């Protein structure tokens, strides 16, 4: 094959490769933009913060405000949970990663299949926890606390001890 013809063929292959890579990148950006094409600005006093009773898979007494997404469906979500004083979520797991930020007060988090208040770590306002999928953990409060949870839905929970699951208490 002629050297100039080989160079032209190589140049054509390289250009085609960069075009398809660029198109794939733009498609990926388009997909990302579809899922995050809006912006949200909230203050805790905004009327958009509507507190309601927590979901049935959490013990009674907790309140929840959905900030973004639908935690019952597939996709990203952000919620705030208002824990009353002396509130406990027994040891459990989630099928997806959970990110928790303490917004007000203090919350306590521990790892493992057994609730051990002495081993739990106190997270104060601004404290942050990353809980991998299927990692057994528990949470509790000593005084009122507000935490923000974000992750990928559906937001689900499996209690280590099925007797701790509020859905089993009728």
TrEMBL record:
It comes from the Bacteria. Pfam families: Cupin_7 (PF12973). It comes from Flaviaesturariibacter aridisoli. SUPFAM superfamilies: RmlC-like cupins. Keywords: Signal. Residues 47-155 form the ChrR-like cupin domain. Residues 1-23 form the signal peptide. This is ChrR-like cupin domain-containing protein.
């Amino acid at each position: 094959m002629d050297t100039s013809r080989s160079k032209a063929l190589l140049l054509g292959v390289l250009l085609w490769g960069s075009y398809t890579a660029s198109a794939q990148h733009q498609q990926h950006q388009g997909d990302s933009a579809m899922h995050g094409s809006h912006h949200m600005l909230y203050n805790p006093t905004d009327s958009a913060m509507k507190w309601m009773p927590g979901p049935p898979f959490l013990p009674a007494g907790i309140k929840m405000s959905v900030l973004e997404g639908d935690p019952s469906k597939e996709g990203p979500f952000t919620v705030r949970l208002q824990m009353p004083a002396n509130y406990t979520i027994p040891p459990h797991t989630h099928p997806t990663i959970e990110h928790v930020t303490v917004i007000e007060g203090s919350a306590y988090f521990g790892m493992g299949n057994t609730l051990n208040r002495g081993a739990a770590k106190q997270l104060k306002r601004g404290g942050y926890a990353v809980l991998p999928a299927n990692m057994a953990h528990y949470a509790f409060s000593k005084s009122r606390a507000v935490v923000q949870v974000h992750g990928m839905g559906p937001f689900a929970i499996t209690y280590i001890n099925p007797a701790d699951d509020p859905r089993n208490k009728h």
